[in-house]
Design goal:
The protein has helices at about 40, 65-80, 95-105, 125-135, 140-150, 155-160, 160-170, 175-185, 215-225, 240, 245-255, 315-330, 330-340, 345-360, 370-380, 385-395, 400-415, 420-435; strands at about 10-15, 20-25, 45-50, 85-90, 110-115, 200-205, 225-230. It is an alpha/beta fold and about 450 residues long. α3 links the parallel β4 and β5.
């Protein structure tokens, strides 16, 4: 690890230089230290490559707004060392990167492990709401509630040092990079593409994971042709930290027995060992979490693969419109409006989706922040307070801060009239309170 260009990632190598490469990808809000307890065993067979997400663990704060962008940065980092073929294990957001690799760059992937992962992580609304909270309140509310999402209650109570380590790990993350990662997860959805994952895949999940639990894991196993499922008892979302021995054993067994051979030499795809590594700067390495008490290795639950249905057809303006409409206004709002449509109003909703959202809102001439500013001003001028409430929420999702929304309404007061702005302030104030109050 040394100076990190914007198109690459902060990284670390461990293990013999002539061993096959195994990559470990982190979860949102964590650093490469979440894998510390797996490394001593893994380096007996592999050269382990770990990386930090942008703005995490002291990495430069170059936000990546999509999983594809993160994947491209990872490959650019590996290309610096001539690493062409590797195994990959990723947790949560790191698992999304693994799926992206399998779908877009299968020739480089020898084997895959997806931990606490899902083909779609919750709903777009959930992650955009998290971005609104971070933009308004910083990362402290997210940091304080992270142990509840990451660990079982018994583990958190028994391991206060690890719990505090997790909180500090989130607090030291760059907020802008965290928000960008939330946007990346909000847009990630590969449910229709799972059948195209062509490498041996271990899907590993904690039995008590409330974020991406066994149901999501079984969706992956059902969709990926060569996949098996391992459910780790007594573990929540950050299962490599909570049950390190179990995860290590499962990874060793998977990558030892399910390493797909490289393509025929006629294709030009051959394994190239990693080159020399720049030393890690100790100043950028946070203190690793304390070692947890040993845990028994669980028995993996094996599930056979099942074929996944293929979905055909690409988006037309209506499909683009419904996607943009959901991203801007939120799933709950769009579902409610469409559910209320009947034979009389359905054509109007079709017109809105196709032209307002599929054509105008998707035009590249203005970004969504600018379109939100224009929309808020127009709604104040027209006195459309019901629409103003939904578009204030949309403005927050599109990246406007409460202070910026206030400035838009003050500007509208001058050009649209004080009474109109007075009503608008009341609506926007209530929406902002609801949207930016952290949930404990």
């Amino acid at each position: 690890m040394s100076e990190t260009p914007p198109n690459t990632l902060q990284y670390r190598f461990d293990g013999p230089e002539d061993a096959p490469i195994l990559i470990l990808g982190p979860s949102l809000g964590t650093t490469w230290h979440m894998w510390d307890r797996q490394v001593p065993e893994l380096v007996k067979q592999w050269r382990v490559f770990r990386f930090d997400l942008p703005g995490h663990g002291g990495a430069p704060a170059y936000p990546a707004g999509s999983v594809g962008d993160l994947t491209d940065r990872l490959l650019a980092t590996l290309d610096r060392f001539g690493v062409q073929r590797f195994g990959y294990a990723g947790c949560a957001l790191g698992g999304a990167v693994g799926m992206e690799l399998a779908l877009r760059h299968p020739e480089r992937l020898a084997s895959l492990a997806l931990i606490a992962a899902s083909p779609r992580f919750g709903t777009a609304d959930e992650f955009r709401q998290r971005g609104v909270i971070v933009r308004t309140n910083g990362l402290d509310p997210i940091a304080r509630t992270s142990p509840d999402r990451w660990f079982t209650s018994g583990f958190a109570a028994a391991q206060p040092a690890i719990t505090e380590w997790a909180v500090q790990m989130v607090r030291t993350t760059d907020p802008g990079c965290y928000i960008a990662a939330c946007e990346a997860l909000a847009a990630f959805d590969v449910r229709a593409d799972l059948a195209s994952v062509g490498v041996p895949t271990l899907v590993l999940v904690g039995s008590d994971d409330q974020v991406t639990g066994p149901a999501e894991a079984r969706t992956l196993v059902a969709g990926i042709p060569d996949a098996r499922l391992a459910v780790v008892p007594g573990a929540s979302h950050l299962v490599p930290v909570e049950q390190p021995a179990a995860v290590t054993d499962l990874l060793v067994r998977h990558f030892s027995t399910a390493w797909q051979p490289a393509f025929d030499s006629s294709t030009g795809q051959t394994a190239i060992p990693g080159g020399p590594v720049n030393p890690v700067n100790p100043a950028l390495m946070p203190v690793a979490p304390p070692v947890a008490p040993p845990h028994p290795v669980p028995i993996a639950e094996i599930a056979p693969a099942a074929p996944a249905p293929q979905s055909g057809g690409r988006a037309d303006p209506h499909d683009t419109g419904i996607k943009v409409r959901r991203e801007v206004l939120g799933d709950a709002h769009v579902d409610r409006v469409l559910a209320q449509a009947d034979d009389f109003s359905a054509d109007f909703q079709e017109l809105l989706t196709r032209y307002a959202w599929g054509e105008i809102w998707d035009r590249p001439g203005l970004d969504r922040r600018s379109r939100s500013v224009a929309t808020l001003t127009a709604l104040v001028a027209g006195g459309h307070l019901d629409e103003l409430a939904s578009h204030t929420r949309a403005a927050l999702r599109n990246g406007l801060t409460p202070s910026e929304i206030k400035e838009v309404l003050l500007q509208a007061a001058v050009y649209c009239g004080v009474p109109a702005a007075n009503s608008a302030f009341k609506v926007a104030q209530q929406v902002i309170r609801e949207e930016t109050t952290p949930t404990e």
